[in-house]
Model the fold of this input.
Amino acid sequence: MAFFTLIPKKDHILLLDQRLLPGTTRYIRIRTYRDAFDGIRQMAVRGAPAIGVTAAFGVWLGARSIRTNDPRRYLAELEKMCRHLISARPTAYNLSWAVNRMLGVARSGRQTPSTTAAALYKEAVRMYHEDIDANRKMGAFGARLIKNNSTVLTHCNAGALATAGYGTALGVLRSAQEAGKHIRIFADETRPFLQGARLTAWELQQDGFDVTLITDNMAGWMMKQGLINACVVGADRIAANGDVANKVGTYSVAVLARVHGIPFYVAAPSSTFDPAIATGSGIVIEERPVHEVITIAGKQIAPNGIKVRNPAFDVTPAKYITALITEKGVIFPPYKKGIRALLG
Ligand code: MRU
Done:
């Protein structure tokens, strides 16, 4: 891979600005927790696991800036920053999961204001490496489900760009290829933000995959012609019953896959599973700005004043999902028991 999503440095992090891809490869410097918030909110970094790891470093940067030695005031200031970070994007569970894990370190009796920032840096680096490790393990489990010579459809970008590295759904495809399987990939362009066209197509092409870009409305016809053998996508939040929130359009792909008898897999680390939410109906769906829908590459494509909806995610009911691929193994339906075992 010729790029890194995030590079930790001694007093800042570098984030690959994904808004500029595929045309420009530029890193932005994140020096404060507010920079981290903006990077996440404005989607310089996106993808649930990458958002989580960025936020973890954001907590560290926030801690570095606190100027009091009073432990209670120190923690109160840090908690305020954490609440702000968590509000950047509501659907990706990895965000609150990562921030709360960082808070756990800060709250541990062993830390004082003078030692907390160093402990938080260590924890963020640990999460960064754990994410890559989880993706590799997930990839190895998932690769067994992908048959040699198959064509796989993916939606959005659940690749190295959406994680600390290697990817979830694309990690499965990387692993399958590394295992010697010959696979072709169809990438949905993924309107409105075009993560499929701009990011998945770019990252897979960089790595020499046989990748074909289609617009979102072409998936059904490709399936009807027998051109797709499996679907693999990522997830932003998975409820306790296995319902999956992922990039809007995932639900349509899952329903189409069911109608055409095609397996539909979701690959996600355990940090994406939210045990506090019983079913998908409890998942908050982020509504994003109107301009993402009425413009393409900055050019307006709809009339002024038109009414617009822009839900960034949808929820795919568990009944349409063939299996959930995690770093601890593959979970098949019924999901409730398997998810409970996964989260221990
Ligand atoms: O709005 P985005 O680009 O953050 O949405 C990303 C997705 O929906 C991904 O599929 C999901 O986060 C899984 S990434 C491993």
Residues 113-143 form the longest helix (31 residues). The pocket of MRU is lined by residues 46-49, 92, 156, 158, 162-163, 168, 195, 234-236, 246-247, 312 (CB under 6 Å).
